[in-house]
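Comment thread on ticket #2218

A.B. wrote:
> Attaching the input chain for the structure job we discussed in standup.
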Amino acid sequence: MRVRSAVLSSTLTVFAVTLVTGSGIASGSATTRASGRARVEAFHAAQHARLVWRGEHPSPAIPAPPNAARLPAVTVRAVKQISQDTLTATTGIEPDTQVEPDIDVDPYNEAHVVAVVQNGRDPNGGAQTIAYSTSQDGGKTWVTGSLPGVTTSTGGPYNRASDPAVAFGPDGSAYAVSLVFNTNNNSDGVAVSRSPDGGVTWNQPVFAQTDNGGTDDKEWITVDDFASSPHRGRIYIAWDAAGGGGQPIYLRYSDDKGQTWSARITVSPATSSTIGARPVVQPNGDLTMVYEKGANIVAQTSHDGGATFASGVTVAQDKASDPFDERAGSDLPSVAVDPTTGVMYVVWGDTRFRSDGTMDAVLSRSTNGGTTWSAPVRTNQDSTTDGLTHMTPAVAAYGGAVDVAYRTRQKSGSSYSNLVGMRFIRSTDGGLTFGGEIGVGQPADLTWSARAGGKFLGDYMGVVASAHAIHPVWCRSFQPPTTEQYHQTTWSAAVLPS
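C.D. wrote:
> Ran it. Output below, let me know if you need it in another format.
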C-alpha cells in the first residue's frame, strides 16, 4: 500500500535450502547488470548451481510428527531470482529494491505464469515503476520488464505506482493492476494493464479510476474464469479510499477486457474504516470481498456480479502483531477459492495461539459461499513458545489441497534476527490439518532491505496453485556483490506435489 504505519511484532528463523531446477542446474538471475556487477553475479550464480547439482533437497523445517508417513510430500524446483531493479533511480528512490510481489497462473494453460512487483521503492510510498516477470514453461525460465505507460519512467502520467496484483482471464490474457499517484499534486488512481499474449507484451494502461484527492489505496484485481458463471470474463478491481469521515471499499468491473469500466460501486459503508480488499470469484459467479475492518476480518458477497453486496460477515478477529522494526502487513488477509470445490480460504498472521508474543499463520475456511467461516486454525505446526514468528502469509488452493506460504523470523528476548526465512506448508484435506513444512530458498537479510515505516519486504507476497504445481513469489534482500545500501530482488519457485 502507499503509506502505512509499521505493523506490530513477530519473529523469524531461517531454513535455507538449495533445490533442483527443471534442467538439473539452476540458471542465474533473470536480469543482469553490466560489466563488473554481471561478472560478480555470474560467480554467485555458479556457486548456487554447484550446490543444486550436488542434489541437496529441502527437508522438514520442524521435527516430523508421528504420522509423518501421511504428510503431503512435495518437491521444490526452479528456485531462482526472476527480477531485479536495474533502472537508474530517480530522486527519492531506493535503488536496487523490489517489494510486494503477486503472482498468477493461466487456469487454462498452467505453463503460463506471471508475477508483478514494485520496482525501485520510495520509502515515502510507492515505487518508480511496476515490473513484470513472465514464464511460459512453468517457472523454469523467465523474461522481465516494466509495465509501459504506468509511471513517468515508462511514459505514463504518474511518478509513483504501488500495490501491484495480477490475474489471468479465460482467454489467456493477463491483467495487472497498479495504484498510481503523483507526489507533487496529490492526484491518484487505479491503472489496469492488459497483456494479450499471457504476459509477454503489455498494452498501454487504462486508468479505471482517477481522483484528485490522493485518497485511493490498496487495490486488487480478479477475473471470473468459470464456464459455469453467468459473468465469465468479467474483470473486477477493488480498492479503499480515505476521506469523508470513513475509508470504504469501492469496486468497478469490466466486461470488455478492461477497455471500459462500470460506475463506481460502494461495497462497505462509506463511514467504515476498511483496508486490504481482496476480491475472489466463486465457481457459480458469486463475488466475495474479504478485507480488514477495524479489528476484524470481514467477508461480503455479491450474487449479481458485483452490482450489490450482502451485509458483511465476520471471518475472525484480527490479532496480528508484526516485529516492531519491520512492516510486514500480516494483518492484511490473503484469500483463495478452490476452483474445483468452491471452498474459500483466508489466512493472516495472528497471536491468539501463542504465549511468546509472536504470530502463527492462521486459516479460516468457508464451505457455504462465505455465509459462515470456521474458527481459525494454525497452519504452521511448530511450538507455540519457540519465539518464531510467521509473517505475511499467502494462500492458494486447488483440487482439495491448500497451500500456505509465509515468512519467518526468530525472536530472542526483545530482539529479532535480521534473517527472514521463506516457508511453505500444505494441507491435503481441505485445510483441516497441515504438515510437511519446508524451507524454500535462501534467507533474506534485512540489513539490505528497502525501508517504509520499518524494514520492508512488502505488505503481501503471492502464491498460486494449479493442477500440477504451486508457485510462490517473494522478495529477498541480501548482501549485494558491490558496495550498495540496498539489494532486494524477486524470487519464485515451482513446488510440485508428489
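A.B. wrote:
> Thanks. Noting for the ticket: The chain has one helix and 33 strands.
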